[in-house]
């Protein structure tokens, strides 16, 4: 358990550094296969934030007619989307000649997802407090923009790819989420 705790600590620390534009954060994330495997603990850390986001949404906008169904759908999208992107990114890394860098990349991507969920959770607070819509929209826009930038920045560094290639990978991640939400009716 000590190895996992250390991996979590270094992964979150590295992701936080990356979120503030410090490329040195990349060096804090374990870049080997074991580190990549341990980095999937990030999903377990992010999951409660997803649940909080749903509860905040329900508090601000009213409970859905079938909350258990909606929550199950969200959980399924979360798991399938997370795993699906890992598989897709490995395929892409092989195709662009970055297969050796992929374990470090997926580890960075996993840990940065925790930071991205934290940003979205912070951005949801104005809705919970019934702040004016403009404040909520502005904080959501900032959080989403920062989250997308973080993924792009981390992708560029971890895979050592061009800005356009990094943007394409971020776009692929977004498309997976949109596709899953679309087919699930969410």
List keywords for this structure.
186 residues; mainly alpha; 0% strand; globular
What would you say about this model in short?
The chain is mainly alpha-helical and 186 residues long.
Helix count, per DSSP?
7
Percent of residues in helices comes to over 70%
The SSE order reads: HHHHHHH
Characterize the quaternary organization of these chains: single chain
Low-pLDDT regions: none
Radius of gyration: 17 Å
Structural class: mainly alpha
What can you see in these coordinates?
- The chain is mostly helical and 186 residues long.
- It has one domain.
- 81% of the residues lie in helices and 0% in strands.
- Helix 4 runs antiparallel to helix 7 and helix 5 packs antiparallel against helix 6.
- The longest helix has 29 residues.
- It is globular and about 45 Å long.
- It starts with a helix and ends with a helix.
Write the layout of secondary structure elements.
Elements: H1 2-19, H2 33-38, H3 41-61, H4 67-95, H5 102-128, H6 133-159, H7 163-184
Helix pairs in contact: 1-5, 3-4, 3-5, 4-7, 5-6, 6-7
């Amino acid at each position: 358990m000590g190895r996992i705790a250390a991996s979590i600590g270094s992964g979150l620390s590295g992701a936080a550094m990356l979120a503030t534009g410090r490329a040195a954060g990349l060096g804090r994330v374990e870049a080997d296969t074991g580190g990549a495997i341990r980095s999937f603990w990030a999903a377990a850390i992010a999951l409660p934030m997803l649940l909080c986001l749903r509860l905040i949404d329900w508090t601000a906008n009213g409970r859905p007619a079938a909350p258990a169904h909606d929550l199950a759908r969200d959980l399924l999208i979360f798991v399938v989307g997370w795993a699906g992107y890992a598989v897709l990114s490995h395929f892409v890394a092989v195709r662009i000649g970055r297969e050796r860098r992929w374990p470090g990349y997926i580890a960075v991507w996993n840990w940065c997802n925790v930071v991205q969920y934290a940003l979205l959770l912070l951005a949801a607070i104005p809705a919970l407090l019934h702040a004016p819509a403009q404040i909520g929209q502005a904080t959501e826009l900032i959080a989403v923009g920062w989250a997308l930038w973080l993924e792009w920045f981390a992708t560029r560094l971890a895979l050592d790819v061009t800005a356009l290639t990094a943007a394409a990978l971020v776009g692929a991640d977004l498309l997976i989420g949109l596709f899953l939400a679309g087919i699930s009716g969410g």
